[in-house]
Amino acid sequence: MISIPYKKSFEFEIGAKCCIQLAFEVNDKKYVQQIISSLSKKVIGLHMRLNEKSDRIYYVNEKPPIIKIPNFKNIEKATMNFGIHHKVDPYARFGSIGYNDNMVILNVSHGVADGGYFKYIAENIFDDTNINIPSHFPYEAKEIFKEKYEQSPNDIAFWDDDPYINRIITNDPSKLYQTFE
Hints:
With 181 residues, the protein is of the alpha+beta class. Helix content is 27%, strand content 18%. The longest helix has 13 residues, at 30-42.
């Protein structure tokens, strides 16, 4: 089985179970299975999992988790419900697909997907000429910007330790997102 070491850079999104969702709403049921098939072939996070020791990420060449969800009138409520009730378990997979009669929802760890990746997926959802999972594990920003990273100063606080970047301030705690756990 193909694997890579579990790097510290993945830990924030994966360890904190930060996920992002991409939802499709269609007018005809026939598109639901097409979208599920396309996502299953394109989204590498649906084919990755963390091992029991939490020290390696494995590629899994099996059908990803696909979950039938209730029909909702509102795609936002459907997406929220799916994210809350079907959390990503990185030891099983880094993502899953939820669907009903007219919606398909992709829920993936932010450690292996971002908005730019979702834009690419959405723009190519029915493109059968480019349907295979990338032949590599997701690149890390540190790898992509290696030269700039090595030339940057190293005495700057990392964003998660910097109180000027990472903070939540409110004058009304009732406006904060409420967890359902």
